[in-house]
Design goal:
This protein is α/β, with parallel strands linked by helices and about 450 residues long. It contains 17 helices and 18 strands. α6 links the parallel β7 and β8. α5 runs parallel beside α6 and α9 crosses α12. Bound molecules: nicotinamide-adenine-dinucleotide and uridine-5'-diphosphate-glucuronic acid. The site of nicotinamide-adenine-dinucleotide (NAD) has 27 residues, from α1 and α5.
Length: about 450
């Protein structure tokens, strides 16, 4: 099929190369000429494992091209996806990019005679597709819905594993204006082997918010248990949640133990970030209030999350006595490993707390050896090129992003570079390291002096 994708961010470009990969003919449209040029030169405008290779092969076999010319792209296609951003403004969703894209698509459809389906893939609050998007397209195209197709097809991919997630979906949700629209999208995805849910436009929009809100809730739940473990001697949140994970209702299938991905959201840490979980939970909270519903649980999810970075910094402050004049190595800037996205990254909040307490920050992230584009950084933040350089002379190191490089580092010798050998693990992922003598290693969800009574494996064996 011939497809146009409006917006070449993580979702748009991944969708484009993956659909080209299964044989569709794809045109990617963006308003940023430099993005379009980079894509046409087989350079992804952002870091996503495997994307450059997929992009090269899609360009080489002529299945994908990028352009700034939206109207001609739409005219040459049967389906147009809207994958533009839906950022937050003061906690509410900003639908201006979706609205502009819908208007431009509608204008383009004025000159198109055949049946065309517009599918919203951006995450939008319930009602957006069948009001804002539909109205814009009707107004600018001069056609009634039905003469063109309308779908809402949420995307569930994660940054860092976007290609694999897109190619191996758990489910494909197709919100449809009418059956005819939905049938076209189903045809597009016919080679995928997963449940396909055909439903209303608003159910599809709500499935997306409910999914991200559940993930955020699991993380904040885990962090609340961690906070309790931190004040309870002889407890350890990893052991406690490891015991919870073994509940057959969470991990049992036909008597066999499996480890479903959702358990990776029942882990304590320094909080969730990224371009989606915080913004989507906030958008749903704002929507709830507009509907006169108090979203008490989601309010608490965000409140717990907001506290995490400060708690981590407090651990360092308590251990050092004061952070005034201290040098702190900040290990990881990206909101999670495998991406170069720093939007809402807990690392930025940790950095600000450290600076406000008078610390000097030495930052190291395998992807950012200088300040991320667009980020205004204080003069007391220094960007280092290696882990060793960041640790040199530091009074403490805070691990924020779970980069494999940190787990594989030479921790036998690295702490020797530090002035005071205090390592605080905001992701609890260096617990298996054998620390040399002299190192104080603190983790989330455990009183500093408490011992691990039973390992998760021991619990599993019982
Ligand atoms: P992004 O901000 O990385 O990219 C959006 C792109 O759209 C930009 O390149 C921008 O220039 C372009 N754009 C904006 N208006 C345009 C227009 N009128 N015409 C052409 N291009 C236009 O966005 P993203 O992270 O890919 O997210 C897109 C949507 O998908 C959001 O609603 C997000 O919530 C949702 N989503 C994101 C992810 C993710 O992992 N990032 C996963 C699932 C869903
Ligand atoms: C998330 C969802 O996982 C995707 O399904 C969804 O499509 C996407 O949002 C979206 O709508 O954009 P993503 O933001 O890429 O994907 O990242 P996640 O892997 O979900 O991680 C989000 C944050 O939660 C990260 O900061 C991560 O470090 C943190 N996290 C995750 C925890 O703090 N604890 C956990 O146990 C798991």
């Amino acid at each position: 099929m011939h497809i146009t994708i409006i917006g070449t961010g993580y979702v748009g470009l991944t969708t484009g190369v993956c659909l080209a990969g299964i044989g569709h003919q794809v045109i990617c449209v963006d308003v940023m000429p430099e993005r379009v040029a980079a894509i046409n030169e087989a350079r992804s405008p952002f870091y996503e494992p495997g994307l450059d290779e997929m992009l090269s092969s899609a360009l080489a076999n002529g299945r994908l091209r990028a352009t700034t010319e939206l109207a001609s792209a739409v005219a040459a296609s049967e389906v147009t996806f809207i994958t533009v951003g839906t950022p937050q403004i003061d906690g509410d969703i900003d639908l201006s990019y979706v609205s502009a894209a819908a208007r431009q698509i509608g204008s383009a459809l004025r000159d198109v005679s055949g049946y065309h389906v517009v599918a919203v893939k951006s995450t939008v609050i319930p009602g957006t597709t069948d009001t804002l998007v539909r109205n814009m397209i009707e107004e600018t195209s001069g056609r009634a819905t039905g003469e063109f197709g309308l779908c809402m097809n949420p995307e569930f991919l994660r940054e860092g594993s976007a290609i694999d997630d897109f190619n191996n979906p758990d489910r494909i949700v197709i919100g449809q204006w009418d059956e005819k629209s939905g049938r076209v999208l189903a045809q597009l995805y016919e080679s995928f082997d997963c449940p396909m849910v055909f439903t209303t436009l608003r159910n599809a929009e709500m499935v997306k918010y409910a999914s991200n809100s559940l993930l955020a809730t699991l993380i904040s739940f885990s962090n609340e248990i961690a906070a309790l473990c931190e004040v309870t001697p002889d407890t350890d949140v990893d052991v406690v949640l490891g015991g919870v994970h073994l509940d057959r209702r969470l991990s049992g299938v036909n008597g066999e133990r499996i480890s479903p991905g959702v358990l990776s959201f029942l882990r304590a840490g320094c909080g969730f970030g990224g371009s989606c979980l915080p913004k989507d939970v906030n958008a749903l909270r704002a929507y709830a209030r507009q509907q006169s519903v108090t979203p008490s649980l989601l309010d608490a999810v965000m409140a717990i999350n907001a506290e995490r970075p400060a708690r981590l910094v407090r651990l360092a402050e308590d251990a050092l006595g004061s952070l005034e004049g201290a040098t702190v190595a900040l290990l990881g800037l990206a909101f999670k490993a495998g991406t170069d996205d720093v939007r809402e990254s807990p690392a930025l909040a940790v950095m600000n707390h450290l600076l406000s307490k008078g610390a000097v920050v030495r930052s190291y992230d395998p992807i950012f050896t200088s300040a991320p584009a667009g980020l205004r950084v204080d003069e007391n933040v220094h960007f280092c090129h290696t882990l060793r350089e960041a640790l040199a002379g530091a009074d403490a190191a805070l691990v924020i992003t779970g980069w494999p490089e940190f787990a594989e580092a030479d921790w036998k010798t690295l702490p020797g570079e530090m002035r005071r050998q205090l390592i605080i693990d905001g992701r609890n992922f260096l617990r298996d390291v054998s620390w040399p003598q002299g190192v104080t290693y603190l983790t989330i969800g455990r009183m500093p002096e408490s011992a691990i009574v039973k390992s998760v494996e021991e619990l599993a064996a019982q």
